Amino acid sequence: MSTDDGTSRVVVGVDGSPASHAALRWALRYARRTGATVRAVGVYDLPGAEGWSAPAVDVLFDEEQARRSLSEELTAIVPPDTDVPLVQHVVRGNPARVLIDESDGAELLVVGSRGRGGFASLLLGSVSQQCAAHASCPVVIVRPETADGAPPEGDTP
After folding, report:
1. What is the β-pairing status of strands 9-13 and 37-44?
2. Is 110 exposed, middle or buried (0-12, 13-18, 19+ CB in 10 A)?
3. How confident is the model at residue 152 (pLDDT cuts 50, 70, 90)?
4. Could you give the C-alpha distances from 123 to 95, 118, 119, 126, in angstroms and in order?
5. CB-CB contact of 76 with 28 (8 Å)
6. 3-52 confidence digits (pLDDT tens)
7. C-alpha to C-alpha distance for 77 and 7, rounded to whole angstroms
8. What is the distance between the alpha carbons of residues 108 and 12, in angstroms, rounded to a whole number?
9. Residue 5 to residues 2, 9, 10, 52, 85: CA-CA distances in angstroms?
10. Quick one: CA dihedral 153, 87, 97, 54, positive or negative?
């Protein structure tokens, strides 16, 4: 349950959605209280990487774009004076599978209740459902914040 330096690790999935922003804020509050390191994980995939073929893509461009997006998102969400150790990690693959793999050895996995995928009528997104069912550590599923930026009632660590 620890990082290379012996501190505990909290993994959080970040995908640009309001729910993932709320999950990141929740993970930061939790880590501040427990002394953990937050590992913010961004996942990207290539069209046609599995199954049907798709137009050719530039793998290096997609990876660089994913890194830039995650970095910009963290800059926008994480206060510049935060005292919580934060590690950025970008991985190519299926988001649920990557986060489940990242949960191995973590103290906690934090995900948003719904990401950027469709089917807004679902109560939980397919990634959060898969993580809850298969992660190697406890999973916290965070709903998007209210219009005033406050966490939904009961979502405070």
Report:
1. parallel
2. buried
3. low
4. 18, 12, 9, 10
5. no
6. 555 679 999 999 999 999 999 999 999 999 999 999 999 998 865 545 55
7. 23
8. 8
9. 8, 10, 14, 43, 11
10. positive
User: Which two three-digit tokens encode residue 122?
Assistant: 């679902």
Angstrom CA distances, 30 to 25, 37, 125, stand at 9, 10, 23
**Rounded CA separation 127/94 (Å):** 9
- Structure pTM? 0.80
Task: Tokens for 136, please give them.
Answer: 């190697």
Q: Which conformational region is residue 87 in: left (phi greater than 0), alpha (psi within -120 to 50 degrees), or beta?
A: beta
Nearest to 26 by CA among 151, 154, 153: 151
Tokens representing 148 are: 């005033």
The strand ranges marked E within the chain are 9-13, 37-44, 86-92, 108-112, 139-142
